[in-house]
Amino acid sequence: MSMHARGFTLLELVAALAIFAMMSVMAYGGVSALITTREGLDVSYERLQNWQLATHRLRLDLTQVRERPVRDEFGDVQPALHEPEEGRLELTHGGRRNPLGQPRSTLERVAWFLDTDGSLIRQSWLGLDRAQSEKPLRTTILEDIETLEWRFLNSDDTWVEDWPPAQLAGTLPQDLPPPRAVELRIESKRLGELEFIFATGVEA
């Protein structure tokens, strides 16, 4: 008995192509969903990492506050830590890195504030007592910030909205101690309201 080779009919080919196309679409959709999920996770991880670095940097500044007042560009003496205007925090901290062993102080004057574009900015100066012509170094720490507020823990364990507080308003800048702790209340467009408390290491 002879056997004859049998080919695919046109209908079978069309059905096979339709099934293959449908499986390809399903496979592409799955791969696309995986890629989108991966990209979303990468963005979320990067955002979380930025917040961790920001809070770590602020913690280093505040935990190493030094009772060293400075002279501003107008020659006026400013406290070691104070809030010269709403939302702006200026302080002197220790632990400034000096990898090249240059003959300079390990103290640094910095400021933290919210810029008009919603960026959290850290400013720093090369010297503690600055000249009028000196330009600070600006570093953008975080973006998409809506509000920023500071609070300060007094020596009697009372939180106050301003530093120096009213009861210390007449104290000379060189005699004004830093607060025991600083609280940061910050509202992010993506993460909502957040609150951080940083001890300054100042004894009661």
Task: Offer a quick outline of the entry.
With 204 residues, the chain is α+β, with helices and mostly antiparallel strands. The chain is 26% helix and 30% strand.
CATH class of the domain at 58-199: Alpha Beta
Helix/strand order: HEEEEEEEEEEE
Fraction in helix: 25-40%
Low-confidence stretches: none
In spatial order, strands of the major sheet run 3-4-5-6-7
Number of strands: 11
**Mean pLDDT across all amino acids:** 84
Helix-strand category: alpha+beta
- The CATH architecture of the domain at 58-199 can be given as Roll
CATH fold-level label of the domain at 58-199: Pili subunits
Separation of termini?
107 Å
CATH level-four homologous superfamily name of the domain at 58-199? GSPII I/J protein-like
Question: Per the principal axes of the C-alpha atoms, what is the gross shape?
Answer: elongated
Number of helices: 1
Biggest sheet layout = 5 strands, antiparallel
Strand content bin: 25-35%
Rg over CA atoms, rounded to whole Å, is: 30 Å
Q: What report would you give on this structure?
A:
This protein has one helix spanning 10-63, and strands at 70-71, 77-78, 81-85, 88-93, 108-114, 120-125, 137-142, 145-153, 159-160, 181-188, 192-199. By secondary structure, it is of the alpha+beta class. It has a domain at 58-199: Pili subunits (Roll), CATH 3.10.610.10. The longest helix has 54 residues, at 10-63. The model has no long low-confidence stretch (mean pLDDT 84). Its main location: membrane. It is a single-pass membrane protein. This is Type II secretion system protein J. Residues 82-93 have a biased composition (Basic and acidic residues).
